[in-house]
Specification:
By secondary structure, the protein is an alpha+beta fold. Helix content is about 25%, strand content about 35%. A three-stranded mixed β-sheet has the order 2-1-6, with no helix packed on it. A three-stranded antiparallel β-sheet has the order 4-3-5, with no helix packed on it.
Amino acid sequence: MSLAESMLQIIEDAARKDGFTQVKTVWLEIGQLACVEKESLCFSFEQVKKDSIAEQARLEIIEIGGKGWCSQCNSQVALPALLGPCPACGNYRVTVTDGDQFRIRELEVE
């Protein structure tokens, strides 16, 4: 619920700054490693957007796959889970390089 409330606050702040009156679509980037339950987020956003500038808005979610840098292999690898081993060599010294983000990418407004 707190993520949905924070999203609405960001949207309302942008509306005050940029002068729009209605949000039609919110595009979110959610990384595979961001630990965000998409269904729960969508449900929560439906609840918090009532009687707001985003009341008619729909969410579009862009999923970003997890990637990491393995210090053992010296290579970029797909990372299906946070804190998981390198899929190539099994080493646990993998630094996340992508897929842990959660951000509003774009708003369609009127």
